């Protein structure tokens, strides 16, 4: 933990395991840091006491991503390399609230709204492979998860049902490191709409969260999108996007890349469009002048050649 005033380490917690990610609640009075580590249990560190208070057991393999609910201070979600996403209430002795099941599009309300044919919440997988991304919408009503099955799933957190959003075959996700989709704050969007930015290796994909419609592809100029071949392909992708962040109070997006570069993305405003149109007109005018000058040179050369008398011997 670092002190923001001095930018120096103020505390260190030894979890005796590789730490993949951590999460601190934005609303809670408690100062519990949830840690996703190589250990199959979610570790909770209390910043007040400086102790690792307790562990949340349930996953069978390493935990890669954790996220506190933005509206319920004691509710936590976690994603594991065993393919499961679990929900926890840290106030309860039996902390585990259940798992999310990708085959369940009904949820706890059942087919009739009263629990008919509702699935058992103790079994099921959210993804067919490693889950390395878990993030809540800012209203707390939905959870978004990403996995190595190259799927992004949206969950209705009121019922626990799979919302069946489909984002097509463009999604790429192969690295063990945590990969978090970025959800645009709802206050900058039209009411009822949610937009997701997804760090898709060397480009950023912009989707409608519920419809799954691709809205835009953001690419860094000069960086090819063709896949790198070879056994060390993943290690050699220096321009891979590792994380995304939203600038609070603005409409700017930041992306971090594996080559050590942080890039800023800003929306195009009307002034930008006008400037680009003016530059394009100037460029077209200069191109036309160049073509005209070349034609005049060629015409002059042709005239010189036709004036010369050619004798055959």
What is this entry, summarized?
The chain is α+β, with helices and mostly antiparallel strands.
Number of strands: 21
The geometry reads as elongated
Order of helices and strands: EEEEEEEEEEEEEEEEEEHEEEH
Question: How many helical stretches?
Answer: 2
Query: What low-confidence regions span 5 or more consecutive residues with pLDDT below 50?
Result: 230-236
Q: What class would the helix/strand composition place it in?
A: alpha+beta
Strand content: 25-35%
List the helices and strands and how they pair.
Elements: E1 2-3, E2 8-9, E3 19-24, E4 32-37, E5 42-46, E6 51-56, E7 63-68, E8 75-80, E9 85-89, E10 96-99, E11 131-136, E12 142-147, E13 151-156, E14 161-162, E15 182-183, E16 195-200, E17 203-208, E18 214-219, H1 233-236, E19 241-246, E20 253-257, E21 262-265, H2 270-307
Antiparallel strand pairs: 1-2, 3-4, 4-5, 5-6, 7-8, 8-9, 9-10, 11-12, 12-13, 13-14, 15-16, 16-17, 17-18, 19-20, 20-21
Characterization of this structure:
The strands form 6 sheets. A 4-stranded antiparallel sheet has the order 3-4-5-6, with no helix packed on it. The protein has helices spanning 233-236, 270-307, and strands spanning 2-3, 8-9, 19-24, 32-37, 42-46, 51-56, 63-68, 75-80, 85-89, 96-99, 131-136, 142-147, 151-156, 161-162, 182-183, 195-200, 203-208, 214-219, 241-246, 253-257, 262-265. The chain is of the alpha+beta class and 313 residues long. The termini are far apart.
List keywords for this structure.
313 residues, alpha+beta, 4-stranded antiparallel sheet, 2 helices
